[in-house]
Amino acid sequence: MCYRKHLRQVRHARRRAKAQQRALLALELEGFVALTLHTVTATLTVPIEREVGAQVADTLREALRERRRALKTEATQLRRDGGENAYRRDYARAEPVAPPSTPTASSPFGGSSALPLPPDGAPALQS
Asked: What are phi and psi of 22, to 5 degrees?
């Protein structure tokens, strides 16, 4: 899957989880009276007491918090991987830098000082 498409899906899932957290808070303020569980083939509605509803809300809130944390970690990793891939792609496209075509004066420290030789061929003075 494309990096951008996957990142977009992760961001959408994070927004959806955040909306679910807000909806859970609103329902909790009103007070739970029943829970409905859905499977592929069946639906079950269970009436509950207020104290049990608070415990269920705490459990659901923690599950949503963990989900958002996992999605945030995944989005961070996707951005990091995408940035590394873009860097590699740009680095591979970059033109190699050609060495200077003129001879350079020798450095007293063993390397080249990258100063071009004067036209008369005498070593350049370094300051």
From this structure: -65, -45
